[in-house]
Amino acid sequence: MIQLERVTVIYNRGTLDEKVALKNVDLLVEEGQFVVIVGANGAGKSTLMKVVVGEVKPTFGVCRIMGQVLREEKIFKCGSIVCQDPNLGIFPNLSIEENLMLARKKGFRGLSFGRVDPRAIELLRSCELGLEENLKKKASKLSGGQKQALAMVMAVSSNPKLLLLDEHTASLDPKSTEKIMELTDRINKTLGTTILMITHDMNIAEQYGDTVIVMEDGKIIARIDKSKQKVQASQLKSMIKSKLTATT
Ligand SMILES: Nc1ncnc2c1ncn2[C@@H]1O[C@H](COP(=O)(O)OP(=O)(O)OP(=O)(O)O)[C@@H](O)[C@H]1O
């Protein structure tokens, strides 16, 4: 699904502000995988995500999405993105229902505009945030957690093969974070959507996803495949910490 081969990204190359943000990064994400990226500030997580999206072109190396060398329009056809700010994924002046219809217009197959897809309602109901009971409510009136749940359901309305999540729980309280992470997991497990997620939250990395990628100073310093390595959730945090401290 995603393949990075020896990807190096140098910002402001050849100037005094030159910064090597990614150094020879190799990464393979298979279809249906849920991959979590962790690492300190400046480790290169967002740059890696921007390479996958096509926003940043590798200075050296190659990024392939579904076997094809990336061109910007490709990723947006097969992928959706949800970022940190819940307001960015929704249309605040429209109702929940109108937001869902608009998202569906963009991509849902086989259904005419004017009806909310029952699958979207089912996903909303599964969040237990009361969204499905208030479909006429304006999105601007929702809580942060409710907005992000709506943004997530909208993001998967176009049946993307790939969902990119850039610290999508960072601005939420613990209860909303739990609901959004449960929804994220459900999307991966029930829709089969491949997920690449950045987080600073070690508890999330411990609890969710099949694989944890640890980044430091532009490099992937560890890849922990939870099932293959039979890693218990409780062991993971200390494993990540030991990888990070081992290189400092
Ligand atoms: N557009 C840019 N121009 C120059 N340098 C940049 C640019 N974007 C990022 N950088 C630098 O590249 C390095 C990697 O940044 P990046 O944002 O990818 O890290 P990150 O792991 O996502 O950090 P954070 O967790 O703080 O978001 C940092 O040193 C950052 O200052």
Description:
The chain has one domain: P-loop containing nucleotide triphosphate hydrolases (Rossmann fold, 3-Layer(aba) Sandwich). β1 and β2 (19-29) form a beta hairpin. The chain is of the alpha/beta class. α4 runs antiparallel to α5 (144-156) and α5 (144-156) runs parallel beside α6. Strands 6-7-8-3-9-10 form a 6-stranded mixed beta sheet, sandwiched between helices. Strands 2-1-4-5 form a 4-stranded antiparallel beta sheet, with helices on one face. Helix content is 36%, strand content 25%. It has 8 helices and 10 strands. 42% of the residues are buried. Bound molecules: adenosine-5'-triphosphate (ATP). Residues 2-242 form the ABC transporter domain. This is ATP-binding cassette domain-containing protein. It comes from Pseudothermotoga hypogea.
**Beta-strand content bin:** 25-35%
Strand order of the largest sheet: 6-7-8-3-9-10
Question: How helix-rich are the residues, as a percent range?
Answer: 25-40%
Unreliable segments of 5+ consecutive residues: 107-112
> Which cofactor or ligand species appear?
adenosine-5'-triphosphate
Radius of gyration: 18 Å
Total number of domains: 1
CATH C-level: Alpha Beta
Protein name: ATP-binding cassette domain-containing protein
Keywords: ATP-binding, Nucleotide-binding
InterPro entries: AAA+_ATPase, ABC_transporter-like_ATP-bd, ABC_transporter-like_CS, ABC_transpr_LolD-like, P-loop_NTPase
GO molecular function: ATP binding; ATP hydrolysis activity; transmembrane transporter activity
